Write the structure tokens for this entry.
Amino acid sequence: MMTHGFLGYDASFMLDFVVSALVLIVPVLLYSIYVVKFRRDFILHRNLQLALGMTLLVAVAAFEIDTQWIHGGWEKIVNKNPDAPRLTGTALDHVRTVLRIHLVFAVSTPILWAVTIVLALIRFPQPPVPNPHSRLHRTLGWLSVVDIVATSVTGLWFYFAAFAG
């Protein structure tokens, strides 16, 4: 069981892994936007988006299994020692509030991203080229970018509030 993280805080391995993924995903996402907007490489853009989507799906699934089933929830990871809990009272309430804010974005991001990807796979030809779906795709894409950046920022906020604060 991977109970210890690698970032120097008393988090689980999967928490550290997901936090690292949240930091790394934004530059890859920005590169994917650059590729399609400036190089007009629609195939590379599609492939990067599919790889990011699948990677995040697997990472989040592994994270949830580890956090919920193996550890019994994030509070048990934060307060590993019940005799000397790290977070109690108002500090614990604050972290719960931060988590609720994070979950707004963490839940909406995969839904929005999935809709964006599925519609693109259905409505763009193979190989992908601009067509009447492009306008909606661009709008959904930018909404997805804002959502994943908000997920990343709030995820880091939660991590540091829970483990580094």
